[in-house]
Amino acid sequence: MREEMRPVLLTVNGRSVEVAEGTTVAAAVLISGAPTRRSVSGEARAPLCGMGICFECRVAIDGRPHQRSCQIVCAAGMDVRTL
Amino acid sequence: MSDSWDVVVVGAGIVGAACARECASRGLRTVVVEGSVVGGGATAAGMGHIVVMDDSPAQLALTRYSQDLWAHLAERLPANVEFETCGTLWVALDEEEMEEVRRKRAVYASAGVASEILDSDALEEAEPHLRRPMAGALLVRSDAVIYPPCAAAWLMEEAMRAGAVLSGPRRVVGVGAGRVRLDDRSELRGGRIVVACGAESAELLPEIPVRKRKGHLVITDRYPGLVRHQLVELGYLKSAHSLTADSVAFNVQPRKTGQVLIGSSRQFGDEGAAVRTEIVSAMLERAQFYLPEIGACSAIRTWTGFRAATPDKLPLIGRWPGDETVLLATGHEGLGITTSLATARLIADALTGATSEISTQPYLPARFFGERRVAGFEVDPPQQRSEVHA
Amino acid sequence: MFDHPSAGVVAAEKGNERLELRYGKLILATGARELFLPFPGWTLPGICGAGGLDAMARGGLPVSGKRVVVAGTGPLLLAVAAHVAARGAKVVAICEQAPLRSLIQFAGRMLGQPAKLAQGIRYRWAVRAPMYFGCWPVEARGDGALEKVTLRTRLRRWTVTCDFLACGFHLVPNTELAQLIGCRIEDGLVAVDEMQRTSVENVLCAGEPTGIGGVEMAVIEGQIAGLAAAGALNEAGKFVPRRRKMLGFVRALREAFVLDPELRRLASDATIVCRCEDVVYGDLRRYSGWRDAKLQTRCGMGPCQGRICGAAAEFLFGWCVEGVRPPAFPVLVASLATASTVSEEVQEGS
Ligand SMILES: Cc1cc2nc3c(=O)[nH]c(=O)nc-3n(C[C@H](O)[C@H](O)[C@H](O)COP(=O)(O)OP(=O)(O)OC[C@H]3O[C@@H](n4cnc5c(N)ncnc54)[C@H](O)[C@@H]3O)c2cc1C
Ligand SMILES: Cc1cc2nc3c(=O)[nH]c(=O)nc-3n(C[C@H](O)[C@H](O)[C@H](O)COP(=O)(O)OP(=O)(O)OC[C@H]3O[C@@H](n4cnc5c(N)ncnc54)[C@H](O)[C@@H]3O)c2cc1C
Ligand code: FES
């Protein structure tokens, strides 16, 4: 995937993040410096498989929890919250 | 292993494990034979709702007695049993169902079970995600939820601490005359044999009137706070359940993990474990009707299990007249998690000659013995109040 | 796709919509996932799959200037190292668990596949990082995210600092859908005949679920399956010899990258095995099998449905992980709630 120069603006935990078009939400979350979720015992977690299998990259997008961020491309204005 | 025991318990589901614990703690030399893993049968499939039910006075007496026993045990249960007194809300859609709420409250009160009537607003506050408007609900605060497989394992560990022995995986192929025959052709001798094989009990003793009644469940990912009490519909009043037909009802449960467990269905005549798409679908449509937001939740697993159903919806607890060495602890239908502890008390009382705290009469297997119908039973049991429970 | 409610119908979810697709022929091409083996610290952010990091980088994760350790096993490691290096990452080490001896043998067998061999050499050339054999990570540390990885070979242990550890122990075929449909599985693979037909009528399977053989093999199988499904059996037959020839590569892959039994000792009692439910190794090893362990510890009960920990448990404990049911993948409750096949009887009952 070639990186386009057109930036997409979204928020991660309320903070604005600017990413290249085509960037996955998982990458945007990592760029923002946040882990994607807290595990059942409270550990910080980040994407593992990058291909929709492991569910470590789950975040809430526009209020809907448990979205696999590695499978979703950033859209302008998305409100992403780590879990 | 000693080859002669006071008691041989066949089956280590929650009922067998509870019986073993009670027997061992009363000093009986007890062995449990399990064909698979502890708590891996219906116990691994059940919802784990510890609930007082009032289909009949006998059912009320047994469930109430057993719920008390659970409440007393609660603080000793390990964390993985996930015991939580979340209470039950019997939800009423309309005025007709509110009548049932009031009737139920009176019946519970007569048995000393406290309950409260919630009006529409109070219900909305208690469960903000339920469909609106609802007429109200009956809140039974003392009902609880557990995770049954770990409860069975803990009961079994307790039994072993009291001296019981677990033997398995070994299947029992025959019981009678103080002997238990195993699939490896060996034999165990016991003064008494307790058959606690759940829905498979009739495979050992074909004359027992126990039939398999299949149920489906669905569990979601974690959505803490979406549901706070076990929610059960009272809609069976109008849906004119024919007991020959498959039926579904709204029955959802908050797990301690934050997951939502969605039930429930009942089917006779389907003895395969496969998940049936049309049943799951009908069940979830019902759930969405009552709890519209559940549709947007992620469902991570579905499964099925078999209840051991009897013709009169009461369990078979006590001596089996067909053989003086055999006792039955089966036929608990959709309430075996709840009534396991009471069942164990009644069985141990019978074995030790102790007087039971409640009348044992309604549960004695003898009630079916000698009747023409013992080899099986018609699908239509006598009139019953509630088909909605898990 | 998450269900196969009846012959000739599959149920799928697209966005938030349920789709019901009727088919004359169904070709399963569900691919493979990486095998992840637990070791102390492996759940730290910054540790991901080898293919995982590659996919993340392609998805826009900047790796430029980042220190990356690539570890695990299989030809994928070199490819991933080359890909992330091309994006500006500084690959500090490539750790292949298989011994050098196996790799030399593997290269020898690849002489018959010059293109593949050349690709491997090109990849190796593109990355100037040291490559170690018989080497794997034994511990990762960091405060909230990965900082250091301790690596071992038979002769030594040492610690490197890095931003990413890309670690995958080769591939596990995704056979869940095939299992759900009832296709016969042999040795963990979907059993197919020469025309890629499974044991279930009208259902074919191609690619990694029938054997881990890389992209070329998958393409050939896809061609056979496509032609066979279209009824062009003669045409399909022309690809069969090429597929047969590739089987040598499949075998060579399997033999060269067989996992060192020492890897079973990587996890300590406190190491998490099931990442969805945070179940540790010490709690699992008391059980006799997958079902018992699952019921008692919740291992494999999370949303990944045991795809990660189940494969690890098969290797660690020799357990047999079974029990695929619809939905083969988590889907919305609403998607399960609308089946067009609801029978009259059920509707009345509800
Ligand atoms: C969908 C569903 C929901 C339910 N929800 C609830 C609920 O919310 N609350 C509630 O109270 N109850 C509920 N139940 C009912 C409850 O699950 C059962 O009544 C209870 O688990 C029965 O326990 P058991 O020990 O008798 O049977 P099981 O758990 O089935 O145990 C029987 C054991 O015997 C073993 N066995 C059988 N035959 C042999 C043999 N020949 N040799 C050796 N071993 C043998 C089996 O391997 C098994 O482990 C539900 C049931 C279902 C299906
Ligand atoms: C990250 C990675 C990098 C690789 N790099 C190389 C390389 O450089 N060279 C090489 O030779 N091999 C490489 N391989 C291996 C190579 O990609 C595979 O051999 C080849 O892609 C196999 O093709 P496939 O069609 O079987 O599976 P895949 O290409 O994995 O395709 C499977 C597809 O099925 C879909 N799918 C899975 N389950 C479902 C479902 N339930 N419903 C709907 N769709 C579903 C997936 O989303 C995916 O799109 C790599 C593998 C991976 C995982
Ligand atoms: S990173 Fe594994 S599912 Fe997204």
Report on the structure:
The complex is a heterotrimer of chains A (83), B (390) and C (350). Chain A has one helix spanning 25-32; strands spanning 7-12, 15-20, 37-38, 44-45, 58-61, 64-68, 79-82. With 83 residues, chain A is mainly β. Chain A has one domain: Ubiquitin-like (UB roll). Chain A has a five-stranded mixed sheet with strand order 2-1-7-5-6, with helices on one face. A two-stranded antiparallel sheet of chain A has the order 3-4. Chain A is globular and about 40 Å long. The relative contact order of chain A is 0.27. Chain B is an alpha/beta fold. Chain B has three domains: 4-46 and 148-209 and 312-378, FAD/NAD(P)-binding domain; 88-141, no CATH class; 211-307, D-Amino Acid Oxidase, Chain A, domain 2 (2-Layer Sandwich), CATH 3.30.9.10. In chain B, the strands form three sheets. In chain B, strands 1, 2, 8, 9, 10, 11, 17 and 18 form an eight-stranded mixed sheet that branches. Chain B has an eight-stranded mixed sheet with strand order 5-6-4-13-14-15-12-16, with helices on both faces. In chain B, strands 3-7 form a two-stranded antiparallel ribbon. In chain B, strand 10 and strand 11 form a beta hairpin. Chain B is globular, with a radius of gyration of 20 Å. Chain C is α/β, with parallel strands linked by helices and 350 residues long. Chain C folds into two domains: 2-33 and 172-256, FAD/NAD(P)-binding domain; 36-169, FAD/NAD(P)-binding domain (3-Layer(bba) Sandwich). Chain C has a five-stranded parallel sheet with strand order 6-13-7-8-9, covered by helices on one side. In chain C, helix 2 links the parallel strand 7 (67-73) and strand 8. In chain C, helix 3 (100-109) runs antiparallel to helix 8 (240-256). The longest helix of chain C is centred in the last third of the chain and has 17 residues, at 240-256. The model of chain C is unreliable at 341-350 (pLDDT under 50). The A-C interface holds A 1, 3, 19-20, 22-24, 26-28, 30-31, 35, 39-41, 43-51, 53-56, 58, 66, 70, 74 and C 33-34, 36, 43-49, 51-56, 58-62, 144-145, 272, 275-278, 302-304, 307-308, 330. One flavin-adenine dinucleotide is lined by residues 1, 29-32, 51, 54-55, 76, 79, 174, 177, 207-208, 214-215, 218, 328-329 of chain C. One flavin-adenine dinucleotide binds next to helix 1, helix 2 and helix 6 of chain C.
